[in-house]
């Protein structure tokens, strides 16, 4: 029996033996398993000097690494056969593309914690750096993460906790440095003789400089501050390092006040440091950038960096030699960037942004001046990730009916190495962009998934709330695996008769700083719940929705908002599915605040918590949580279950022993979604509307 047929058989067995008789029919279980088995790609990386690309593909729940030359049909360089939750990540190619390093096992979010064991194997796997050699053999470099090849490809460096290991690529490395804290990232100098090392020590972060010089391997620490020093970038000549110095504001700090970050420069020869530029008060005075974004030097002495000075995350250029240097932003205002690179000849800026349409992300190219950008990708796809491979440009694209997949652009040609096919018997319907007005009149964007026109109404309805909360849902598959699965679930729910509204509430990304950092969000008052409540009222007013059969579902911060909706508005939301949500937001302490300020902060956190409104909670809820969750404490769900039990509020609960926050096994997503279908059908009566 093939792995895929095993997955489908398991789904049918699950539906037949675990779910009650009125649960989702077996054909729905099979259909959901088939949809979740569609190939999904992530971790795209390219070689600096060759048109070779590599990425991780999850197909039928099994992860493997694929390699493509110039967008040609890929070949598989690993041979994993089990959906056991072992992640593959941290991919990096040598400059010539002949070798590939990657991390097997562990958790990219918590690389130095004990590795997960979602499959409950007798002997848990280790977080291991492996190297695919030119002849295809796979060598083991050792335990660790963050592998990176030297510019000539001869050496490989990686980290293990606070240890730095360096050795001949494909050989046995040696430990050259051990430091307190955790090494989070490594950066080679242009000539390959030095490494800039980012070190997280909790209360602060440092940058150290290690030189490959026999007899003198002790690190040199860049002049440090009581701050988070991060994102070091060597100048093209290797003589200096630029980096970001950021400070975390106190809870009581007024927005727009204070100077919380700067760009520093360190001269390697003299060992001196100077401040190049300090973010002024106002918008952008607090540092924020998407994960993986850093500083980049251009060929003419300018430094590229992300900044929200206009209220939108843009890429700006700082002329380092000017006195004083004044930043000039290159990407359009009124839009945000997600990632960027310089072209191979370093004359053009390549980036992804939602310019012109905040719900549509494309790849763009523009000269390093004020010349307008030109789009690189089509209007019918979403692109938030971009890299280069030699002269080629590669993006990770998604569509209405296709999960994340790489696309290669070169010399005006477009090549798609892998094409996914929609499973027979299922049609992905284009979600509609809708605009909802919050109680304060603010424009809130969402995506509406409608049942087939042949399905009689009025229909039961659902709000879907994403996690993060710094996320943005789009009218297509999402580039993140967690939300790629959620998109499938929303499509299936619509196909089964639900009207589903995915709402991009305040505190999310994509709509500017004022939206992401709105007053009173989260622990400061849960103001974003007003947008969720407005979305519920929008559904209730629709003529195709049964007003008494509106539910809500989501995970993580979306689980928190689901619980908050049921606690505050059980009259509006008749049922909900809460995946690993937060239920008590109170923090144990708040350093730097007076006793009175601490009391006010704790009171605000409590009022913002679902637990504070437990007396009003009446609607039934489904609780699902993995008990090895490192993002949201498992005790958040056990606490809620105890509180619901004490008040006789009906709930159903399920645990995945050994699973993390974002479930690592596709079979666990399948089980969770089948439980959700059964629960929603039972309480919102949609199972018969197919």
From TrEMBL:
Tell me which Gene3D superfamilies the record gives: alpha/beta hydrolase, TolB, C-terminal domain
Q: Does the keyword Protease apply?
A: yes
Provide a GO biological process annotation.
proteolysis
Report the superkingdom from the record.
Bacteria
Q: Does the keyword Acetylation apply?
A: yes
One GO MF annotation is: serine-type endopeptidase activity
- Which residue intervals make up region (Disordered)? 585-605
Task: Give the PROSITE patterns listed for this entry.
Answer: PRO_ENDOPEP_SER (PS00708)
What keywords were assigned to this record? Acetylation, Aminopeptidase, Hydrolase, Protease, Serine protease, Signal
Ranges for domain Peptidase S9 prolyl oligopeptidase catalytic come to: 491-685
What Pfam families does the entry give? PD40, Peptidase_S9
- For this UniProt entry, which residues form the secretion signal? 1-23
Cited function? This enzyme catalyzes the hydrolysis of the N-terminal peptide bond of an N-acetylated peptide to generate an N-acetylated amino acid and a peptide with a free N-terminus. It preferentially cleaves off Ac-Ala, Ac-Met and Ac-Ser. Also, involved in the degradation of oxidized and glycated proteins.
Q: What protein name applies here?
A: Acyl-peptide hydrolase
Q: Which organism is it from?
A: Gluconacetobacter liquefaciens (Acetobacter liquefaciens)
